[in-house]
Amino acid sequence: MVKPRPLQKGSRAALIAPSGPVSPGEPEQCSRVLEELGLVPVLYPSVHLRHGYLAGDDSARAKDLMEAFLDPAIDGIFCIRGGYGASRILPLLDFDRIRSCPKFFGGFSDITALHICLNQFCQLMTYHIPMPSTIVHKGLDPYTRRQILNCMAGFEEDAIENPPDIPFLPLVSGQAEGELTGGNLTLVASSLGTPYEIDTRGKILFLEDVKEQPYQIDRMLVQLRNAGKFKDCAGILLGEWTDCDPANPESSLPLGRIFQDLLVPEGKPILENLVCGHCMPSLCLPLGAQVFVDAEKGRISFPGK
Protein backbone atom coordinates (compact mmCIF):
# COMPACT_ATOMS: atom_id res chain seq x y z
CA MET A 1 0.00 0.00 0.00
CA VAL A 2 1.35 3.42 -1.00
CA LYS A 3 1.10 6.09 1.68
CA PRO A 4 0.66 9.49 0.01
CA ARG A 5 3.04 12.33 0.73
CA PRO A 6 1.86 14.51 3.62
CA LEU A 7 0.23 17.85 2.94
CA GLN A 8 2.00 20.90 4.30
CA LYS A 9 1.16 24.55 4.77
CA GLY A 10 0.79 25.95 1.28
CA SER A 11 0.07 22.60 -0.41
CA ARG A 12 -2.28 22.92 -3.36
CA ALA A 13 -5.49 20.99 -2.77
CA ALA A 14 -8.00 20.18 -5.50
CA LEU A 15 -11.64 20.62 -4.50
CA ILE A 16 -13.82 18.31 -6.61
CA ALA A 17 -17.43 17.10 -6.63
CA PRO A 18 -17.57 13.44 -7.70
CA SER A 19 -21.07 12.92 -6.28
CA GLY A 20 -23.81 15.45 -5.49
CA PRO A 21 -23.92 19.20 -6.16
CA VAL A 22 -23.52 22.04 -3.69
CA SER A 23 -25.50 25.27 -3.41
CA PRO A 24 -24.41 28.52 -5.07
CA GLY A 25 -21.76 30.23 -2.95
CA GLU A 26 -20.84 27.03 -1.13
CA PRO A 27 -17.72 26.30 -3.18
CA GLU A 28 -16.24 29.57 -1.96
CA GLN A 29 -17.15 28.72 1.63
CA CYS A 30 -15.51 25.32 1.22
CA SER A 31 -12.42 27.01 -0.18
CA ARG A 32 -12.15 29.02 3.01
CA VAL A 33 -12.32 25.78 5.01
CA LEU A 34 -9.23 24.51 3.19
CA GLU A 35 -7.50 27.86 3.58
CA GLU A 36 -8.08 27.71 7.33
CA LEU A 37 -6.34 24.32 7.29
CA GLY A 38 -3.32 25.98 5.68
CA LEU A 39 -3.94 24.77 2.14
CA VAL A 40 -4.25 26.55 -1.21
CA PRO A 41 -7.60 25.44 -2.69
CA VAL A 42 -7.97 24.83 -6.42
CA LEU A 43 -11.63 24.65 -7.44
CA TYR A 44 -12.44 22.26 -10.25
CA PRO A 45 -15.43 22.79 -12.59
CA SER A 46 -17.59 20.08 -11.02
CA VAL A 47 -18.04 22.08 -7.80
CA HIS A 48 -20.03 24.66 -9.82
CA LEU A 49 -22.09 22.19 -11.85
CA ARG A 50 -25.53 20.68 -11.30
CA HIS A 51 -27.15 17.85 -13.24
CA GLY A 52 -30.23 17.04 -11.19
CA TYR A 53 -28.98 15.27 -8.06
CA LEU A 54 -25.46 15.08 -9.53
CA ALA A 55 -22.64 17.63 -9.69
CA GLY A 56 -22.50 17.63 -13.47
CA ASP A 57 -22.78 14.65 -15.77
CA ASP A 58 -20.67 11.55 -15.26
CA SER A 59 -17.99 12.52 -17.76
CA ALA A 60 -17.46 15.95 -16.15
CA ARG A 61 -17.12 14.50 -12.65
CA ALA A 62 -14.79 11.72 -13.79
CA LYS A 63 -12.69 14.23 -15.77
CA ASP A 64 -12.15 16.37 -12.67
CA LEU A 65 -11.04 13.40 -10.59
CA MET A 66 -8.63 12.17 -13.24
CA GLU A 67 -7.16 15.61 -13.88
CA ALA A 68 -6.71 16.26 -10.16
CA PHE A 69 -4.70 13.05 -9.80
CA LEU A 70 -2.65 13.58 -12.95
CA ASP A 71 -1.81 17.27 -12.44
CA PRO A 72 1.67 17.42 -10.84
CA ALA A 73 0.85 20.86 -9.42
CA ILE A 74 -1.88 19.33 -7.21
CA ASP A 75 -0.70 17.87 -3.90
CA GLY A 76 -3.98 16.50 -2.55
CA ILE A 77 -7.65 16.01 -3.36
CA PHE A 78 -10.66 16.82 -1.19
CA CYS A 79 -14.17 15.77 -2.19
CA ILE A 80 -16.47 18.70 -1.47
CA ARG A 81 -19.43 16.53 -0.39
CA GLY A 82 -21.09 13.13 -0.75
CA GLY A 83 -24.70 12.54 -1.73
CA TYR A 84 -24.93 10.17 -4.68
CA GLY A 85 -23.04 9.56 -7.90
CA ALA A 86 -19.50 8.34 -7.21
CA SER A 87 -20.35 4.78 -8.28
CA ARG A 88 -21.55 6.05 -11.66
CA ILE A 89 -18.10 7.32 -12.62
CA LEU A 90 -16.09 4.21 -11.71
CA PRO A 91 -16.11 2.76 -15.26
CA LEU A 92 -14.78 6.10 -16.56
CA LEU A 93 -11.68 6.15 -14.36
CA ASP A 94 -8.24 4.97 -15.45
CA PHE A 95 -6.92 3.35 -12.29
CA ASP A 96 -3.60 2.45 -13.90
CA ARG A 97 -2.87 6.12 -14.52
CA ILE A 98 -4.05 7.09 -11.04
CA ARG A 99 -1.73 4.45 -9.57
CA SER A 100 1.21 6.24 -11.17
CA CYS A 101 0.30 9.53 -9.47
CA PRO A 102 -0.44 8.73 -5.81
CA LYS A 103 -1.54 11.64 -3.65
CA PHE A 104 -3.68 12.53 -0.64
CA PHE A 105 -7.39 11.77 -1.18
CA GLY A 106 -10.09 12.52 1.39
CA GLY A 107 -13.85 12.21 1.81
CA PHE A 108 -16.53 9.87 3.19
CA SER A 109 -20.12 8.71 2.73
CA ASP A 110 -20.78 8.27 -1.04
CA ILE A 111 -17.01 8.65 -1.53
CA THR A 112 -16.71 5.13 -0.06
CA ALA A 113 -17.07 3.81 -3.63
CA LEU A 114 -13.89 5.66 -4.60
CA HIS A 115 -12.01 4.67 -1.43
CA ILE A 116 -12.60 0.97 -2.13
CA CYS A 117 -11.29 1.25 -5.70
CA LEU A 118 -8.31 3.47 -4.88
CA ASN A 119 -7.30 1.07 -2.09
CA GLN A 120 -7.80 -2.12 -4.12
CA PHE A 121 -6.87 -1.12 -7.67
CA CYS A 122 -4.28 1.58 -7.02
CA GLN A 123 -2.86 0.31 -3.72
CA LEU A 124 -3.28 3.87 -2.44
CA MET A 125 -3.97 4.68 1.20
CA THR A 126 -6.86 7.17 1.42
CA TYR A 127 -8.52 9.10 4.23
CA HIS A 128 -12.06 8.80 5.60
CA ILE A 129 -12.49 12.42 6.75
CA PRO A 130 -15.25 15.04 7.05
CA MET A 131 -15.65 16.97 3.82
CA PRO A 132 -15.55 20.76 3.43
CA SER A 133 -19.32 21.00 2.86
CA THR A 134 -19.92 19.07 6.09
CA ILE A 135 -17.66 21.50 7.94
CA VAL A 136 -19.46 24.51 6.41
CA HIS A 137 -22.80 23.23 7.69
CA LYS A 138 -21.75 21.71 11.03
CA GLY A 139 -18.64 23.66 11.99
CA LEU A 140 -15.20 22.35 12.90
CA ASP A 141 -14.60 21.44 16.54
CA PRO A 142 -11.05 21.24 17.94
CA TYR A 143 -11.02 17.42 18.09
CA THR A 144 -12.07 16.99 14.45
CA ARG A 145 -9.64 19.69 13.33
CA ARG A 146 -6.78 17.82 15.00
CA GLN A 147 -7.93 14.61 13.33
CA ILE A 148 -7.94 16.21 9.86
CA LEU A 149 -4.54 17.82 10.41
CA ASN A 150 -3.23 14.46 11.58
CA CYS A 151 -4.37 12.89 8.30
CA MET A 152 -2.82 15.70 6.29
CA ALA A 153 0.46 15.07 8.11
CA GLY A 154 0.38 11.38 7.21
CA PHE A 155 -1.42 10.01 10.29
CA GLU A 156 1.50 10.18 12.70
CA GLU A 157 -0.39 9.19 15.85
CA ASP A 158 0.25 5.82 17.50
CA ALA A 159 -3.43 4.89 17.63
CA ILE A 160 -6.90 5.71 16.34
CA GLU A 161 -8.78 7.30 19.23
CA ASN A 162 -12.23 8.66 19.99
CA PRO A 163 -12.63 11.92 21.91
CA PRO A 164 -11.22 11.27 25.42
CA ASP A 165 -14.61 10.99 27.12
CA ILE A 166 -16.08 8.50 24.63
CA PRO A 167 -14.58 5.00 24.81
CA PHE A 168 -14.71 2.33 22.15
CA LEU A 169 -17.05 -0.46 23.27
CA PRO A 170 -16.27 -4.16 22.77
CA LEU A 171 -19.06 -6.17 21.17
CA VAL A 172 -16.98 -9.32 20.68
CA SER A 173 -13.66 -9.73 22.48
CA GLY A 174 -10.43 -10.74 20.81
CA GLN A 175 -7.61 -9.31 18.76
CA ALA A 176 -7.19 -8.89 15.03
CA GLU A 177 -4.79 -7.27 12.61
CA GLY A 178 -5.35 -6.33 9.00
CA GLU A 179 -5.76 -3.66 6.39
CA LEU A 180 -8.51 -1.16 7.20
CA THR A 181 -11.33 -1.03 4.66
CA GLY A 182 -14.97 -0.08 4.35
CA GLY A 183 -16.96 3.06 5.04
CA ASN A 184 -20.61 3.73 4.38
CA LEU A 185 -22.66 0.53 4.66
CA THR A 186 -24.96 1.41 1.75
CA LEU A 187 -22.02 1.90 -0.60
CA VAL A 188 -20.18 -1.19 0.67
CA ALA A 189 -23.28 -3.35 0.10
CA SER A 190 -23.95 -1.85 -3.33
CA SER A 191 -20.45 -2.82 -4.47
CA LEU A 192 -21.34 -6.52 -4.31
CA GLY A 193 -21.63 -8.31 -7.61
CA THR A 194 -19.77 -5.57 -9.51
CA PRO A 195 -16.17 -5.32 -10.73
CA TYR A 196 -15.66 -2.90 -7.82
CA GLU A 197 -16.74 -5.29 -5.07
CA ILE A 198 -15.12 -4.79 -1.70
CA ASP A 199 -12.52 -7.39 -0.73
CA THR A 200 -12.59 -8.04 3.03
CA ARG A 201 -10.25 -11.05 3.14
CA GLY A 202 -8.04 -10.72 6.20
CA LYS A 203 -9.06 -7.08 6.64
CA ILE A 204 -10.63 -4.92 9.33
CA LEU A 205 -14.05 -3.83 8.08
CA PHE A 206 -15.41 -0.44 9.18
CA LEU A 207 -19.12 0.37 8.71
CA GLU A 208 -21.36 3.39 9.36
CA ASP A 209 -24.50 4.91 7.85
CA VAL A 210 -27.06 7.71 7.99
CA LYS A 211 -30.85 7.96 7.68
CA GLU A 212 -31.42 4.24 7.23
CA GLN A 213 -34.15 2.40 9.09
CA PRO A 214 -33.04 -0.60 11.18
CA TYR A 215 -34.67 -3.07 8.78
CA GLN A 216 -32.68 -1.50 5.92
CA ILE A 217 -29.44 -1.83 7.90
CA ASP A 218 -30.46 -5.42 8.68
CA ARG A 219 -30.99 -6.14 4.98
CA MET A 220 -27.59 -4.75 3.96
CA LEU A 221 -25.78 -6.59 6.74
CA VAL A 222 -27.50 -9.82 5.69
CA GLN A 223 -26.36 -9.16 2.13
CA LEU A 224 -22.76 -8.78 3.32
CA ARG A 225 -23.05 -11.84 5.55
CA ASN A 226 -24.50 -13.98 2.78
CA ALA A 227 -21.72 -12.81 0.46
CA GLY A 228 -19.15 -14.07 2.97
CA LYS A 229 -17.74 -10.64 3.76
CA PHE A 230 -17.90 -11.11 7.55
CA LYS A 231 -16.53 -14.64 7.32
CA ASP A 232 -13.60 -13.33 5.26
CA CYS A 233 -12.69 -10.34 7.41
CA ALA A 234 -10.39 -10.38 10.45
CA GLY A 235 -12.40 -7.93 12.56
CA ILE A 236 -15.18 -5.34 12.46
CA LEU A 237 -15.43 -1.70 13.56
CA LEU A 238 -18.82 -0.01 13.90
CA GLY A 239 -19.13 3.76 13.64
CA GLU A 240 -22.04 6.19 14.00
CA TRP A 241 -25.55 5.30 12.86
CA THR A 242 -26.84 8.84 12.51
CA ASP A 243 -30.60 9.37 12.32
CA CYS A 244 -31.13 5.61 12.11
CA ASP A 245 -33.71 5.40 14.90
CA PRO A 246 -36.80 3.38 13.91
CA ALA A 247 -39.85 5.30 12.75
CA ASN A 248 -42.02 2.75 14.61
CA PRO A 249 -40.02 1.47 17.60
CA GLU A 250 -42.77 -0.91 18.70
CA SER A 251 -42.46 -2.88 15.46
CA SER A 252 -38.70 -2.66 15.00
CA LEU A 253 -35.59 -4.39 16.22
CA PRO A 254 -33.04 -2.08 17.87
CA LEU A 255 -29.69 -1.82 16.13
CA GLY A 256 -28.00 -3.52 19.06
CA ARG A 257 -30.18 -6.59 18.55
CA ILE A 258 -29.44 -6.61 14.82
CA PHE A 259 -25.70 -6.54 15.50
CA GLN A 260 -26.11 -9.35 18.02
CA ASP A 261 -28.05 -11.45 15.51
CA LEU A 262 -25.90 -10.87 12.42
CA LEU A 263 -22.38 -9.92 13.52
CA VAL A 264 -21.69 -11.57 16.87
CA PRO A 265 -22.15 -15.15 15.56
CA GLU A 266 -19.27 -14.58 13.13
CA GLY A 267 -16.93 -14.71 16.12
CA LYS A 268 -14.70 -11.88 14.89
CA PRO A 269 -13.37 -9.19 17.26
CA ILE A 270 -15.77 -6.25 17.08
CA LEU A 271 -15.47 -2.73 18.48
CA GLU A 272 -18.40 -0.34 18.29
CA ASN A 273 -19.06 3.28 19.26
CA LEU A 274 -16.44 4.75 16.94
CA VAL A 275 -17.25 8.45 16.65
CA CYS A 276 -16.91 8.32 12.89
CA GLY A 277 -19.35 8.89 10.08
CA HIS A 278 -22.12 11.43 9.62
CA CYS A 279 -21.39 13.15 12.91
CA MET A 280 -19.41 15.91 14.55
CA PRO A 281 -17.02 15.53 16.22
CA SER A 282 -15.63 12.79 14.01
CA LEU A 283 -12.44 10.78 14.07
CA CYS A 284 -10.62 10.14 10.80
CA LEU A 285 -9.51 6.80 9.41
CA PRO A 286 -6.55 5.89 7.17
CA LEU A 287 -8.18 3.41 4.80
CA GLY A 288 -5.64 0.91 3.51
CA ALA A 289 -3.42 1.18 6.59
CA GLN A 290 -2.53 -1.88 8.66
CA VAL A 291 -4.24 -1.67 12.04
CA PHE A 292 -4.33 -3.80 15.16
CA VAL A 293 -7.65 -4.12 16.98
CA ASP A 294 -7.69 -5.15 20.64
CA ALA A 295 -11.36 -5.44 21.47
CA GLU A 296 -10.64 -6.42 25.07
CA LYS A 297 -8.69 -3.20 25.74
CA GLY A 298 -10.87 -1.11 23.42
CA ARG A 299 -7.87 0.03 21.39
CA ILE A 300 -7.05 0.45 17.70
CA SER A 301 -3.36 0.91 17.03
CA PHE A 302 -0.79 0.51 14.30
CA PRO A 303 1.50 -2.54 14.28
CA GLY A 304 4.96 -1.65 15.50
CA LYS A 305 3.83 1.47 17.35
UniProtKB/TrEMBL annotation:
LD-carboxypeptidase C-terminal domain segment(s): 177-291
UniProt entry keywords in alphabetical sequence: Carboxypeptidase, Hydrolase, Protease, Serine protease
Molecular function as annotated in GO: carboxypeptidase activity; serine-type peptidase activity
Domain of life the protein comes from: Bacteria
Residues annotated as the enzyme's active site: 109, 208, 278
Chain positions covered by the region annotation Disordered: 1-24
Domain LD-carboxypeptidase N-terminal: residue ranges: 14-128
One protein family per Pfam: Peptidase_S66
Biological process per Gene Ontology, one example term: proteolysis
Coiled-coil annotated residue ranges, if any: none
CDD domains xref list: Peptidase_S66
Iron-sulfur listed as a keyword: no
Family: Belongs to the peptidase S66 family.
Full protein name: LD-carboxypeptidase
Organism in which the protein naturally occurs: Bianquea renquensis
